[in-house]
């Protein structure tokens, strides 16, 4: 049952990404082109998502002590702004700006047959593997201490 719910939620997310046009890297890149062919639709998609998600999370946390399929909610405990957060955000933004994909939109774009999505997902997976290796080597802790 859990698999079916996760599958349904993923399919719903992917459908929303495709219908909103966010699986099209040109549409996303036009959002960043303030001096040229600016397209504000990404901001409207984000605002729409936040207008549903924020009250939904508030209602969820008020009404439930735990999720349906786990013993506890798994929320981030850290809330400091450090070099690791800033660096990760910068890499995320640069990758999004170069490719026109964020990780969430790249998966539905794969299903649409975008070759650029396959390249992006491959680079994303390589980046995840590199970050995990650096984390195991305590690289990020050393970076935080030096900043």
Automatic annotation (TrEMBL):
TM spans, by residue?
A: 41-60, 81-101, 107-131
At the top level, the lineage of the source is: Bacteria
Tell me which UniProt keywords the record has, alphabetically.
Membrane, Transmembrane, Transmembrane helix
Name of one Pfam family that matches: DUF6691
Q: What is this protein called?
A: YeeE/YedE family protein
Q: Which source organism?
A: Rhizobium rosettiformans
């Amino acid at each position: 049952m859990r698999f079916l719910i996760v599958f349904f939620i993923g399919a719903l997310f992917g459908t929303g990404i495709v219908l909103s046009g966010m699986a099209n890297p040109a549409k996303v890149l036009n959002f960043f082109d303030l001096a040229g062919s600016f397209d504000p639709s990404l901001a409207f998609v984000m605002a729409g998502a936040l207008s549903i998600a924020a009250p939904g999370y508030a209602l969820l946390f008020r009404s439930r002590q735990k999720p349906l399929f786990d013993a506890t909610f798994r929320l981030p405990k850290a809330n400091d702004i450090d070099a690791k957060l800033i660096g990760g955000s910068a890499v995320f933004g640069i990758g999004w700006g170069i490719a026109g994909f964020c990780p969430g939109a790249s998966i539905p774009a794969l299903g649409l047959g975008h070759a650029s999505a396959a390249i992006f997902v491959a680079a994303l997976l390589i980046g995840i593997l590199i970050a995990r290796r650096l984390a195991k080597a305590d690289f990020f802790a050393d970076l935080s201490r030096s900043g």
